[in-house]
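Sharing a chain and its predicted structure for anyone who wants a worked example. Both blocks are below, sequence first, tokens second.
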Amino acid sequence: MKYLTIDTTTKVTAVSLAEDGRLIAESFLHTAKTHSERLIPMLDQLLIAASWTLQDLEMIGVVRGPGSFTGIRIGIATAQGLAQVLKLPLLAVLSLDALAWAGLGRVEDLVPILDARKNEWYTARYRWVKGKEEVECLTLPQAVPTELWLEHLRSLDRPICFVGDATEKAKTRIEEVLGENAVILPEYVSLPRGAYAARAIWQRWQETGVGELVEPLYIRFSEAEVNWAKKEEARRRLEHE
């Protein structure tokens, strides 16, 4: 089965083409341009490079969050549009689940950390089943204060492998708190990649075998939604005074 994956949950635009779980081609771009500027040109170039056409595709996969609110919406809208036009099944995976593939084969716990702003990370904790390409989720995806999460991980007293777009910036602090238990993968490995999404989507397809209704996973409200809620609360208070 030939399929396309799209991941725009961070500042990285990651697109891949795969067949039966095997990576055929991937495109990675981490520049100042927006996802809306990058995504379609990257897809066109990748199809040409692989000698594929849109009509060759049999499935569309997308990463649905958590991450950038705008990026999530762009990725899902593009994937939904392609799936609808091409009449293909659409599947989705979480950004943290996809990033877990960066640590395939490692025995230590794997912790993706994505910048959630406000001194918080989107994060979870995984462990690969030794000798198998199976991952166990030990701590469910959440938005958590960075220092609180690091203190929790330190209390586990075991090697922790970090991946994700927040890793490079937080490297010094992670090593200060966890010491020798901190395992920091290189940035080119720990950033979101099309290859990771391709493997995660294929695993999802093997589990379900059908398309699904894809909804974004934001975990928490956006800044605009928080401000709107505050204004509504203030308005209601005024009305009752």
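Comments welcome. The helical segments are 35-50, 69-86, 95-99, 146-156, 167-178, 187-190, 194-208, 223-239.
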